[in-house]
Design goal:
single chain; 7-stranded mixed beta sheet; 5-stranded antiparallel beta sheet; 6 helices; about 30% strand; binds biotin
Length: about 270
């Protein structure tokens, strides 16, 4: 690994310009999963805004029980511990804030226009750059903590054939190796800014326009894959709760809270 691509706490701090996010940074050369470590630290009482980073993960986790591969030197694997003062049913909104932050950081640093596939994959030309997995510990009416885990494909030069249609790295898009510490600091900065706006309103009302401007497939056909309930409709963007509004062929407007949504042209849905 090149020295300049070091992602120790010290390296991140040399770029960092945040008020509270990343005051505590824990870096691991190798860990099972930064989300697992962030959960362990949260259980031990670590502060709101703690950031966990790893150069590689042995059992990185994706959404819906999938695994997430993080080979050394090739990616960003980071998790934030948050202790939001919001009802548990609002926690999923924070995930959308993270997608927005990653897309904004990529624009700030590299001038590239990415899109967000609802709820929070960051994509470029229909291929995934970044995935986000949010986990939570809560009582019925109180959040103990939320962990937001973000994986960004940074330095992968070539994906295996089965992934070339669905995954892409920043290196492939910008034609050079991104400096991971700089990218991590930019994501933290943007997340802090957007999270402040989220916290003020306790919803996404101040972020809807920015989010919908980046939403992949907005105004076009989408397929909603809810268990036992699959339908197609036109994506009308998110509402202040972060739900995806889909106009069904019969005119009914559905607000999709959870579930998979396929978007034409993204990951090959045609
Ligand atoms: C997805 O399936 O799209 C979500 C992928 C999330 C991966 C990140 S990498 C850092 C953090 N630690 C994990 O084990 N998962 C998340």
């Amino acid at each position: 690994m090149e020295n300049r691509d070091c992602i120790t706490a010290e390296a991140i701090r040399s770029y960092l310009d945040t008020d509270w996010l990343g005051r505590e940074i824990q870096f691991f050369e190798i860990i099972d999963s930064t989300n697992n470590e962030a959960c362990r630290m949260a259980e031990q009482g670590t502060a709101h805004g703690t950031v966990v980073l790893a150069d590689s993960q042995e059992s990185g986790k994706g959404r819906r029980g999938r695994s997430w591969v993080t080979p050394s030197g090739s990616a960003v694997a980071m998790s934030f511990v948050l202790r939001p003062q919001i009802p548990p049913q609002c926690a999923s909104m924070v995930t959308l804030v993270m997608g927005l932050a990653v897309a904004a950081a990529c624009k700030d640093l590299y001038g590239i226009s990415t899109q967000i596939k609802w709820p929070n994959d960051v994509v470029s030309d229909g291929r995934k750059i970044c995935g986000i997995l949010t986990e939570m510990s809560s009582a019925i009416d109180h959040i103990h903590y939320v962990v937001i885990g973000t994986g960004i494909n940074t330095n992968v030069e070539a994906f295996p054939p089965e992934l070339t249609q669905t995954a892409v790295s920043l290196h492939q898009i910008i034609g050079k190796r991104p400096v991971r510490a700089e990218l991590i600091a930019a994501c933290l900065k943007r997340f802090e800014q957007y999270y402040t706006l989220f916290e003020q309103q306790q919803d996404l009302s101040l972020l809807i326009d920015d989010y919908n401007a980046l939403l992949a497939g907005k105004g076009g056909p989408v397929r909603v894959l809810e268990p036992g309930n699959e339908y197609t409709g036109i994506s009308e963007g998110i509402n202040a709760q972060g739900e995806l509004l889909v106009r069904r062929e019969n005119g009914v407007l559905e607000a999709v809270y959870a579930g998979e949504v396929s978007v034409r042209g993204i990951y090959g849905y045609i």
